Protein backbone atom coordinates (compact mmCIF):
# COMPACT_ATOMS: atom_id res chain seq x y z
CA UNK A 1 0.00 0.00 0.00
CA UNK A 2 1.45 3.40 -0.91
CA UNK A 3 1.96 6.00 1.77
CA UNK A 4 -1.42 7.54 2.51
CA UNK A 5 -0.02 11.05 2.07
CA UNK A 6 2.48 10.54 -0.74
CA UNK A 7 1.16 12.86 -3.42
CA UNK A 8 3.40 15.13 -5.47
CA UNK A 9 1.07 18.09 -5.12
CA UNK A 10 1.20 17.86 -1.33
CA UNK A 11 4.97 17.45 -1.32
CA UNK A 12 5.60 20.47 -3.52
CA UNK A 13 2.96 22.71 -2.01
CA UNK A 14 3.14 22.08 1.73
CA UNK A 15 3.50 25.71 2.69
CA UNK A 16 0.52 26.69 0.57
CA UNK A 17 -1.61 23.89 1.99
CA UNK A 18 -0.77 24.59 5.63
CA UNK A 19 -0.99 28.34 5.17
CA UNK A 20 -4.28 27.94 3.33
CA UNK A 21 -5.67 25.78 6.12
CA UNK A 22 -4.93 28.37 8.79
CA UNK A 23 -6.13 31.23 6.57
CA UNK A 24 -9.44 29.44 5.98
CA UNK A 25 -9.72 28.70 9.70
CA UNK A 26 -9.17 32.36 10.60
CA UNK A 27 -11.64 33.47 7.96
CA UNK A 28 -14.21 30.98 9.24
CA UNK A 29 -13.77 32.28 12.78
CA UNK A 30 -14.20 35.90 11.76
CA UNK A 31 -17.30 34.93 9.80
CA UNK A 32 -18.96 32.91 12.54
CA UNK A 33 -17.89 34.60 15.78
CA UNK A 34 -20.98 36.81 15.92
CA UNK A 35 -23.31 33.79 15.89
CA UNK A 36 -22.63 32.74 19.48
CA UNK A 37 -24.33 34.02 22.59
CA UNK A 38 -22.85 35.01 25.93
CA UNK A 39 -21.92 32.21 28.30
CA UNK A 40 -22.67 32.50 31.99
CA UNK A 41 -19.09 32.99 33.10
CA UNK A 42 -18.12 35.65 30.57
CA UNK A 43 -19.38 38.76 32.43
CA UNK A 44 -17.66 37.74 35.65
CA UNK A 45 -14.46 36.79 33.83
CA UNK A 46 -14.48 40.19 32.15
CA UNK A 47 -15.02 41.84 35.51
CA UNK A 48 -11.89 40.05 36.73
CA UNK A 49 -9.93 41.70 33.93
CA UNK A 50 -11.46 45.08 34.75
CA UNK A 51 -10.48 44.69 38.42
CA UNK A 52 -6.84 44.14 37.49
CA UNK A 53 -6.94 46.95 34.92
CA UNK A 54 -8.29 49.31 37.59
CA UNK A 55 -5.52 48.21 39.97
CA UNK A 56 -2.85 48.96 37.36
CA UNK A 57 -4.42 52.30 36.51
CA UNK A 58 -4.50 53.27 40.19
CA UNK A 59 -0.76 52.58 40.40
CA UNK A 60 -0.01 54.77 37.39
CA UNK A 61 -2.67 57.49 37.48
CA UNK A 62 -4.88 57.29 40.59
CA UNK A 63 -6.42 60.72 40.03
CA UNK A 64 -7.51 59.76 36.52
CA UNK A 65 -9.21 56.63 37.86
CA UNK A 66 -11.01 58.63 40.53
CA UNK A 67 -12.48 60.91 37.85
CA UNK A 68 -13.98 58.02 35.87
CA UNK A 69 -17.74 57.90 36.57
CA UNK A 70 -17.92 54.09 36.40
CA UNK A 71 -14.79 53.29 38.42
CA UNK A 72 -16.80 52.78 41.61
CA UNK A 73 -18.70 49.93 39.91
CA UNK A 74 -15.48 47.93 39.59
CA UNK A 75 -14.39 46.33 42.90
CA UNK A 76 -10.92 46.88 44.30
CA UNK A 77 -8.61 43.95 43.79
CA UNK A 78 -8.33 43.36 47.54
CA UNK A 79 -12.11 42.93 47.86
CA UNK A 80 -12.83 40.90 44.73
CA UNK A 81 -13.61 37.24 45.47
CA UNK A 82 -12.19 35.97 42.17
CA UNK A 83 -9.01 38.04 42.20
CA UNK A 84 -6.98 34.83 42.52
CA UNK A 85 -8.10 33.81 39.02
CA UNK A 86 -5.38 34.60 36.48
CA UNK A 87 -5.83 37.47 34.03
CA UNK A 88 -3.32 36.75 31.25
CA UNK A 89 -6.23 36.79 28.81
CA UNK A 90 -8.77 38.97 30.62
CA UNK A 91 -6.45 41.90 31.39
CA UNK A 92 -5.31 42.57 27.79
CA UNK A 93 -8.91 42.10 26.68
CA UNK A 94 -10.10 44.67 29.23
CA UNK A 95 -7.55 47.14 27.88
CA UNK A 96 -8.62 46.42 24.30
CA UNK A 97 -12.23 47.05 25.29
CA UNK A 98 -11.35 50.55 26.48
CA UNK A 99 -9.67 51.30 23.16
CA UNK A 100 -12.09 49.73 20.68
CA UNK A 101 -15.55 49.26 22.21
CA UNK A 102 -16.07 52.52 24.17
CA UNK A 103 -18.54 51.01 26.63
CA UNK A 104 -20.61 49.22 23.99
CA UNK A 105 -21.27 45.79 25.52
CA UNK A 106 -22.39 44.23 22.25
CA UNK A 107 -19.21 45.36 20.49
CA UNK A 108 -17.17 44.10 23.43
CA UNK A 109 -18.56 40.57 23.31
CA UNK A 110 -18.02 40.43 19.57
CA UNK A 111 -14.43 41.45 20.16
CA UNK A 112 -14.11 38.97 22.99
CA UNK A 113 -15.37 36.03 20.95
CA UNK A 114 -13.01 36.91 18.11
CA UNK A 115 -10.08 37.05 20.55
CA UNK A 116 -10.98 33.71 22.15
CA UNK A 117 -11.02 32.14 18.70
CA UNK A 118 -7.67 33.70 17.79
CA UNK A 119 -6.10 32.15 20.89
CA UNK A 120 -7.72 28.83 19.95
CA UNK A 121 -6.08 29.05 16.52
CA UNK A 122 -2.76 29.70 18.26
CA UNK A 123 -3.27 26.47 20.18
CA UNK A 124 -4.08 24.61 16.96
CA UNK A 125 -0.85 25.94 15.46
CA UNK A 126 1.09 24.67 18.49
CA UNK A 127 -0.61 21.27 18.16
CA UNK A 128 0.27 21.20 14.46
CA UNK A 129 3.91 21.88 15.33
CA UNK A 130 3.95 19.15 18.01
CA UNK A 131 2.58 16.51 15.64
CA UNK A 132 4.88 17.66 12.84
CA UNK A 133 7.84 17.43 15.21
CA UNK A 134 6.90 13.99 16.57
CA UNK A 135 5.98 12.31 13.28
CA UNK A 136 8.46 14.30 11.15
CA UNK A 137 5.91 15.36 8.55
CA UNK A 138 3.69 18.37 8.08
CA UNK A 139 0.95 16.02 6.84
CA UNK A 140 0.60 14.39 10.25
CA UNK A 141 0.67 17.83 11.84
CA UNK A 142 -2.19 18.92 9.62
CA UNK A 143 -4.15 15.79 10.56
CA UNK A 144 -3.78 16.69 14.25
CA UNK A 145 -4.95 20.24 13.58
CA UNK A 146 -7.97 18.96 11.64
CA UNK A 147 -8.91 16.53 14.39
CA UNK A 148 -9.01 19.36 16.93
CA UNK A 149 -11.03 21.64 14.65
CA UNK A 150 -13.44 18.78 13.87
CA UNK A 151 -14.32 18.26 17.52
CA UNK A 152 -17.83 19.76 17.73
CA UNK A 153 -17.89 20.84 21.38
CA UNK A 154 -14.47 22.43 21.15
CA UNK A 155 -15.41 24.21 17.92
CA UNK A 156 -18.33 25.94 19.63
CA UNK A 157 -16.53 26.75 22.86
CA UNK A 158 -13.60 28.15 20.88
CA UNK A 159 -15.71 31.28 20.44
CA UNK A 160 -16.91 31.96 23.97
CA UNK A 161 -15.03 29.89 26.57
CA UNK A 162 -12.35 32.37 27.54
CA UNK A 163 -11.14 30.26 30.46
CA UNK A 164 -10.90 26.58 29.52
CA UNK A 165 -10.25 26.92 25.77
CA UNK A 166 -7.73 29.71 26.28
CA UNK A 167 -5.98 27.63 28.95
CA UNK A 168 -5.95 24.60 26.65
CA UNK A 169 -4.39 26.64 23.86
CA UNK A 170 -1.72 28.21 26.06
CA UNK A 171 -0.94 24.89 27.76
CA UNK A 172 -0.43 23.34 24.32
CA UNK A 173 1.82 26.24 23.36
CA UNK A 174 3.84 25.68 26.55
CA UNK A 175 4.23 21.98 25.73
CA UNK A 176 5.47 22.93 22.26
CA UNK A 177 8.07 25.35 23.63
CA UNK A 178 9.08 22.58 26.05
CA UNK A 179 9.73 20.15 23.20
CA UNK A 180 11.77 22.81 21.39
CA UNK A 181 13.78 23.31 24.57
CA UNK A 182 14.39 19.58 24.91
CA UNK A 183 15.42 19.35 21.28
CA UNK A 184 17.91 22.21 21.52
CA UNK A 185 18.35 23.43 25.11
CA UNK A 186 19.54 27.01 24.67
CA UNK A 187 19.15 29.79 27.21
CA UNK A 188 16.95 31.76 24.82
CA UNK A 189 14.56 28.86 24.42
CA UNK A 190 14.49 28.47 28.19
CA UNK A 191 13.34 32.09 28.57
CA UNK A 192 10.68 31.68 25.86
CA UNK A 193 9.43 28.51 27.53
CA UNK A 194 9.33 30.37 30.85
CA UNK A 195 7.12 32.99 29.20
CA UNK A 196 4.66 30.46 27.76
CA UNK A 197 4.56 28.63 31.08
CA UNK A 198 3.68 31.89 32.83
CA UNK A 199 0.91 32.58 30.32
CA UNK A 200 -0.65 29.20 31.15
CA UNK A 201 -0.28 29.74 34.91
CA UNK A 202 -1.74 33.23 34.62
CA UNK A 203 -4.91 31.79 33.11
CA UNK A 204 -5.25 28.80 35.45
CA UNK A 205 -2.89 28.18 38.35
CA UNK A 206 -2.94 24.49 37.37
CA UNK A 207 -0.44 25.59 34.74
CA UNK A 208 2.20 25.09 37.44
CA UNK A 209 2.04 21.49 36.25
CA UNK A 210 4.13 22.64 33.27
CA UNK A 211 6.96 23.58 35.63
CA UNK A 212 7.02 20.12 37.17
CA UNK A 213 6.82 18.40 33.79
CA UNK A 214 9.59 20.59 32.40
CA UNK A 215 12.01 19.80 35.21
CA UNK A 216 11.23 16.08 34.98
CA UNK A 217 11.69 16.04 31.20
CA UNK A 218 14.98 17.95 31.48
CA UNK A 219 16.16 15.36 34.01
CA UNK A 220 15.16 12.57 31.65
CA UNK A 221 16.88 14.32 28.77
CA UNK A 222 20.09 14.54 30.81
CA UNK A 223 20.17 10.74 31.10
CA UNK A 224 20.49 10.43 27.33
CA UNK A 225 22.91 13.29 26.76
CA UNK A 226 26.70 13.18 26.99
CA UNK A 227 27.97 13.87 30.50
CA UNK A 228 29.54 17.17 29.44
CA UNK A 229 26.11 18.53 28.48
CA UNK A 230 24.43 17.79 31.81
CA UNK A 231 25.76 20.88 33.58
CA UNK A 232 24.41 22.98 30.72
CA UNK A 233 20.98 21.36 31.14
CA UNK A 234 21.13 22.25 34.83
CA UNK A 235 21.76 25.90 33.94
CA UNK A 236 18.94 25.81 31.41
CA UNK A 237 16.59 24.44 34.06
CA UNK A 238 17.59 27.22 36.45
CA UNK A 239 17.11 29.96 33.84
CA UNK A 240 13.74 28.50 32.91
CA UNK A 241 12.56 28.37 36.53
CA UNK A 242 13.53 31.98 37.18
CA UNK A 243 11.95 33.15 33.91
CA UNK A 244 8.71 31.29 34.64
CA UNK A 245 8.50 32.79 38.13
CA UNK A 246 9.27 36.34 37.01
CA UNK A 247 6.85 36.28 34.08
CA UNK A 248 4.12 34.70 36.21
CA UNK A 249 4.32 37.48 38.78
CA UNK A 250 4.55 40.20 36.12
CA UNK A 251 1.44 38.93 34.36
CA UNK A 252 -0.74 38.58 37.46
CA UNK A 253 -1.21 41.84 39.41
CA UNK A 254 -2.90 39.94 42.24
CA UNK A 255 0.52 38.49 43.11
CA UNK A 256 2.39 41.77 43.29
CA UNK A 257 1.75 42.47 46.95
CA UNK A 258 2.50 39.03 48.42
CA UNK A 259 3.60 36.81 45.52
CA UNK A 260 4.64 33.67 47.41
CA UNK A 261 1.78 33.67 49.89
CA UNK A 262 -0.90 34.48 47.30
CA UNK A 263 0.37 31.95 44.76
CA UNK A 264 0.32 29.29 47.47
CA UNK A 265 -3.22 30.27 48.45
CA UNK A 266 -4.37 30.14 44.83
CA UNK A 267 -2.79 26.71 44.44
CA UNK A 268 -4.48 25.36 47.56
CA UNK A 269 -7.84 26.56 46.28
CA UNK A 270 -7.64 24.02 43.43
CA UNK A 271 -8.42 21.14 45.78
CA UNK A 272 -10.65 23.22 48.07
CA UNK A 273 -12.72 25.14 45.52
CA UNK A 274 -15.84 26.45 47.32
CA UNK A 275 -18.48 25.20 44.88
CA UNK A 276 -21.48 23.47 46.44
CA UNK A 277 -23.71 23.09 43.41
CA UNK A 278 -25.30 19.90 42.15
CA UNK A 279 -24.76 17.89 39.01
CA UNK A 280 -27.19 15.50 37.32
CA UNK A 281 -25.25 12.35 36.46
CA UNK A 282 -26.74 9.01 35.37
CA UNK A 283 -30.16 10.14 36.56
CA UNK A 284 -28.97 11.16 40.03
CA UNK A 285 -28.60 14.65 41.47
CA UNK A 286 -25.17 14.68 43.12
CA UNK A 287 -23.15 17.35 44.88
CA UNK A 288 -20.03 18.45 43.04
CA UNK A 289 -18.01 17.07 45.96
CA UNK A 290 -19.62 13.61 45.69
CA UNK A 291 -19.02 12.68 42.06
CA UNK A 292 -17.86 9.09 41.39
CA UNK A 293 -14.40 8.34 40.05
CA UNK A 294 -15.71 7.60 36.55
CA UNK A 295 -17.33 11.03 36.07
CA UNK A 296 -14.44 12.46 34.02
CA UNK A 297 -13.74 9.35 31.88
CA UNK A 298 -17.44 9.01 31.03
CA UNK A 299 -17.75 12.66 30.05
CA UNK A 300 -14.65 12.44 27.83
CA UNK A 301 -16.03 9.38 26.04
CA UNK A 302 -19.57 10.67 25.45
CA UNK A 303 -18.49 14.11 24.19
CA UNK A 304 -15.59 13.09 21.91
CA UNK A 305 -16.17 11.50 18.49
CA UNK A 306 -15.92 7.79 19.17
CA UNK A 307 -13.49 7.00 16.31
CA UNK A 308 -11.03 9.48 17.88
CA UNK A 309 -11.26 7.66 21.21
CA UNK A 310 -10.80 4.21 19.67
CA UNK A 311 -7.83 5.31 17.58
CA UNK A 312 -6.24 7.04 20.56
CA UNK A 313 -6.53 3.74 22.43
CA UNK A 314 -4.73 2.13 19.48
CA UNK A 315 -2.02 4.77 19.87
CA UNK A 316 -1.70 4.02 23.59
CA UNK A 317 -1.61 0.30 22.79
CA UNK A 318 1.17 0.83 20.26
CA UNK A 319 3.19 2.72 22.86
CA UNK A 320 2.64 0.01 25.48
CA UNK A 321 3.69 -2.67 22.97
CA UNK A 322 6.89 -0.76 22.23
CA UNK A 323 7.60 -0.40 25.95
CA UNK A 324 7.04 -4.12 26.50
CA UNK A 325 9.38 -5.02 23.65
CA UNK A 326 12.18 -2.50 24.19
CA UNK A 327 11.81 -1.42 27.80
CA UNK A 328 13.78 1.69 28.72
CA UNK A 329 15.52 1.58 25.35
CA UNK A 330 12.34 3.03 23.85
CA UNK A 331 13.20 6.28 25.65
CA UNK A 332 16.61 6.51 24.01
CA UNK A 333 15.08 8.30 21.02
CA UNK A 334 13.61 11.78 21.10
CA UNK A 335 10.38 10.42 19.58
CA UNK A 336 10.14 7.88 22.39
CA UNK A 337 10.50 10.59 25.01
CA UNK A 338 7.84 12.67 23.26
CA UNK A 339 5.47 9.70 23.40
CA UNK A 340 6.05 9.49 27.15
CA UNK A 341 5.32 13.21 27.44
CA UNK A 342 2.07 12.92 25.48
CA UNK A 343 0.89 9.86 27.42
CA UNK A 344 1.61 11.63 30.72
CA UNK A 345 -0.13 14.78 29.51
CA UNK A 346 -3.30 12.78 28.90
CA UNK A 347 -3.36 10.34 31.80
CA UNK A 348 -1.72 12.04 34.79
CA UNK A 349 -4.31 14.87 35.18
CA UNK A 350 -7.17 12.35 34.93
CA UNK A 351 -5.56 10.10 37.53
CA UNK A 352 -4.96 13.10 39.81
CA UNK A 353 -8.64 14.06 39.61
CA UNK A 354 -9.68 10.47 40.33
CA UNK A 355 -7.26 10.22 43.24
CA UNK A 356 -7.50 13.69 44.82
CA UNK A 357 -11.21 14.28 44.06
CA UNK A 358 -11.16 18.05 43.52
CA UNK A 359 -14.44 19.75 42.67
CA UNK A 360 -15.31 19.47 38.98
CA UNK A 361 -18.54 20.39 37.21
CA UNK A 362 -19.94 21.39 33.81
CA UNK A 363 -18.74 18.13 32.28
CA UNK A 364 -14.98 17.91 32.00
CA UNK A 365 -14.16 21.47 30.94
CA UNK A 366 -11.57 21.83 33.72
CA UNK A 367 -9.56 19.11 31.95
CA UNK A 368 -9.95 20.40 28.41
CA UNK A 369 -6.22 21.05 28.38
CA UNK A 370 -5.57 17.29 28.03
CA UNK A 371 -7.57 17.03 24.80
CA UNK A 372 -4.65 17.95 22.50
CA UNK A 373 -2.76 15.01 24.02
CA UNK A 374 -5.68 12.73 23.14
CA UNK A 375 -5.55 14.11 19.59
CA UNK A 376 -1.81 13.43 19.37
CA UNK A 377 -2.40 9.85 20.49
CA UNK A 378 -5.15 9.55 17.88
CA UNK A 379 -2.59 10.59 15.27
CA UNK A 380 -0.19 8.06 16.80
CA UNK A 381 -2.85 5.40 16.30
CA UNK A 382 -3.44 6.36 12.66
CA UNK A 383 0.32 6.48 12.08
CA UNK A 384 0.68 2.98 13.53
CA UNK A 385 -2.20 1.67 11.43
CA UNK A 386 -0.68 3.16 8.28
CA UNK A 387 2.64 1.48 9.10
CA UNK A 388 0.89 -1.85 9.67
CA UNK A 389 -0.97 -1.48 6.36
CA UNK A 390 2.33 -0.98 4.52
CA UNK A 391 4.47 -3.55 6.27
CA UNK A 392 2.12 -6.40 7.24
CA UNK A 393 -0.13 -7.52 4.35
CA UNK A 394 -2.24 -9.95 6.45
CA UNK A 395 -3.32 -7.07 8.71
CA UNK A 396 -3.81 -4.62 5.85
CA UNK A 397 -7.63 -4.89 5.61
CA UNK A 398 -8.03 -4.33 9.35
CA UNK A 399 -5.69 -1.33 9.33
CA UNK A 400 -7.34 0.23 6.29
CA UNK A 401 -10.80 -0.28 7.81
CA UNK A 402 -9.70 1.44 11.02
CA UNK A 403 -8.24 4.36 9.07
CA UNK A 404 -11.47 4.69 7.09
CA UNK A 405 -13.37 4.69 10.39
CA UNK A 406 -11.36 7.71 11.55
CA UNK A 407 -11.98 9.45 8.24
CA UNK A 408 -15.68 8.73 8.53
CA UNK A 409 -15.65 10.07 12.08
CA UNK A 410 -14.09 13.32 10.87
CA UNK A 411 -16.68 13.69 8.11
CA UNK A 412 -19.51 13.02 10.56
CA UNK A 413 -18.05 15.55 13.02
CA UNK A 414 -17.87 18.16 10.25
CA UNK A 415 -21.49 17.44 9.34
CA UNK A 416 -22.57 17.79 12.98
CA UNK A 417 -20.70 21.09 13.29
CA UNK A 418 -22.54 22.42 10.23
CA UNK A 419 -25.93 20.98 11.20
CA UNK A 420 -25.91 22.04 14.84
CA UNK A 421 -24.47 25.52 14.32
CA UNK A 422 -24.27 27.52 16.56
CA UNK A 423 -25.05 24.96 19.27
CA UNK A 424 -22.26 22.46 18.72
CA UNK A 425 -21.69 22.41 22.48
CA UNK A 426 -24.73 20.08 22.68
CA UNK A 427 -22.84 17.34 20.79
CA UNK A 428 -22.74 13.83 22.20
CA UNK A 429 -21.07 10.92 20.47
CA UNK A 430 -23.00 8.41 22.57
CA UNK A 431 -25.29 8.70 25.57
CA UNK A 432 -25.65 6.39 28.57
CA UNK A 433 -28.55 3.92 28.21
CA UNK A 434 -30.47 5.62 31.03
CA UNK A 435 -30.57 8.84 29.01
CA UNK A 436 -31.52 7.90 25.44
CA UNK A 437 -32.38 11.38 24.23
CA UNK A 438 -31.20 13.98 26.71
CA UNK A 439 -28.78 14.76 29.43
CA UNK A 440 -28.51 17.53 31.96
CA UNK A 441 -26.06 19.23 34.22
CA UNK A 442 -26.28 22.25 36.45
CA UNK A 443 -25.51 25.38 34.47
CA UNK A 444 -22.83 27.46 36.01
CA UNK A 445 -20.17 27.94 33.42
CA UNK A 446 -19.44 27.63 29.77
CA UNK A 447 -22.78 26.98 28.05
CA UNK A 448 -23.92 30.02 26.09
CA UNK A 449 -27.31 31.60 26.36
CA UNK A 450 -29.58 31.66 23.34
CA UNK A 451 -28.66 34.42 20.94
CA UNK A 452 -31.97 36.23 21.41
CA UNK A 453 -31.42 36.38 25.15
CA UNK A 454 -27.82 37.44 24.63
CA UNK A 455 -29.01 40.47 22.70
CA UNK A 456 -30.81 41.63 25.85
CA UNK A 457 -27.78 40.89 28.01
CA UNK A 458 -25.47 42.73 25.65
CA UNK A 459 -27.45 45.91 25.91
CA UNK A 460 -28.06 45.88 29.64
CA UNK A 461 -24.92 44.46 31.24
CA UNK A 462 -22.88 46.56 33.63
CA UNK A 463 -20.21 45.57 36.19
CA UNK A 464 -22.48 45.94 39.20
CA UNK A 465 -24.66 43.07 37.98
CA UNK A 466 -21.81 41.13 36.48
CA UNK A 467 -22.98 37.56 36.89
CA UNK A 468 -26.31 36.00 37.73
CA UNK A 469 -26.33 32.31 38.64
CA UNK A 470 -29.21 29.86 39.04
CA UNK A 471 -30.01 28.16 42.31
CA UNK A 472 -28.15 24.98 43.19
CA UNK A 473 -30.89 22.69 41.88
CA UNK A 474 -31.49 24.55 38.62
CA UNK A 475 -30.75 22.45 35.56
CA UNK A 476 -30.43 23.01 31.86
CA UNK A 477 -31.75 20.25 29.61
CA UNK A 478 -30.06 19.71 26.29
CA UNK A 479 -31.93 17.75 23.64
CA UNK A 480 -29.63 15.97 21.19
CA UNK A 481 -31.10 15.69 17.75
UniProtKB/TrEMBL annotation:
Cited Pfam families: PMT_2 (PF13231)
Coiled coil: none
GO biological process: lipopolysaccharide biosynthetic process
GO molecular function: pentosyltransferase activity
Species whose genome carries this gene: Hymenobacter qilianensis
InterPro entries, sorted: LipidA_mod_glycosyltrf_83, RgtA/B/C-like
Name of the molecule in the record: Glycosyltransferase family 39 protein
GO CC annotations, alphabetized: plasma membrane
Signal peptide (UniProt feature, chain positions): none
Amino acid sequence: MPDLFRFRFFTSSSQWIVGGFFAILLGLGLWLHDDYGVSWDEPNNHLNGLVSAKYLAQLVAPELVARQPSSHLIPDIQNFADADHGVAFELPLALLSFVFTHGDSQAFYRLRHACVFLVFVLGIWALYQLAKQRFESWRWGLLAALLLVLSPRFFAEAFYNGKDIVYMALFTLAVYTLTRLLQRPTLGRAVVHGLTTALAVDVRVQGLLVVLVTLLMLSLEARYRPRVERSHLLRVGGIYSVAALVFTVLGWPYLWALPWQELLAATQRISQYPWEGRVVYFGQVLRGTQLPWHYIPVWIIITTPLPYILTALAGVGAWMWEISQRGRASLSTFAGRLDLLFISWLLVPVLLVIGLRPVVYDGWRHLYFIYPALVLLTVRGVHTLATVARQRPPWRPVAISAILLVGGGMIHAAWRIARDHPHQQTYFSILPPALPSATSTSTTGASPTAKGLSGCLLTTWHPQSACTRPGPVATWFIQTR
